[in-house]
Amino acid sequence: MATEIIELLSSREIAKMRSAGELAYELLNYLEPMVKPGVNTLALNDAAERWTQKHGAKSAPLGYHGGGQVPFPKSICTSVNEVICHGIPNARQILRDGDIINIDVTVILDGYHGDTSRTFFVGTPSPVAKKLVEVTKECLYRGIAAVKPNARIGDIGAAIQEYAEPHGFSVVRDFVGHGINRIFHAPPQIPHYGDRGKGKKLRPGMVFTIEPMINEGTWEVELQADQWTALTKDRKLSAQFEHTIAVTESGVEILTLPLKATTH
Ligand code: MF3
Ligand code: CO
Ligand code: CO
Q1: What is this structure's pTM?
Q2: By CB distance 3.0 to 4.6 Å, which of 90, 147, 236, 261 could disulfide with 216?
């Protein structure tokens, strides 16, 4: 394995990450009101692509083939119900009342990436869907709260796992958070499970995503023939929330929220 160097970003670079991150946040806000029964996921994709271009940015997923995969064919990921992540927008996929959909956007602005996702309800959720989505969102914020200088990567996963599992849910192993800068997926990997006190130490200037995928049933994944769409082996629900964050001298800054926003 190649030596993995974790880049520490300068405050100038973090400012650029913040601009990209805020744009990604605004893109999700723009898409949110379109999430309604009857809309198809390609319509969400096409609206996202147009909005991104209009704001002088690029969609990082379009044509992305990190790690030698087949290129991702669309601009955003739309992962509905049992799809864990990397769902491909499709005109024949029409959202129905009671669905949950994760929309994951990554924009490139001035060379830097902003990567964020939220899970939305389509119409009225079932009680279990509502609970899963609420728990998953709280997992993200508990993971973020574990970030500060000299904490360890394992502290993040431990905080997430300790919250998800007592609710009867499972934490996906096969996909992890990642370093992010001018590169979409950079070291280090950030697992959403793990042991407190283990893993590399966090340092000011590290920038990475936290993006827990939490399942109603088993954490095991099945990959579709398209080589991207990852779904739960038992076809039960999966939810996800993601932010791009920076480790600061005093703790953590969420780059995919407007600056100074401290609440979710
Ligand atoms: N945005 C996803 C992440 O959080 C990655 C999507 S890769 C794609 O890391 F090619 F599917 F877009
Ligand atoms: Co990510
Ligand atoms: Co993402």
Answers
A1: 0.97
A2: 236
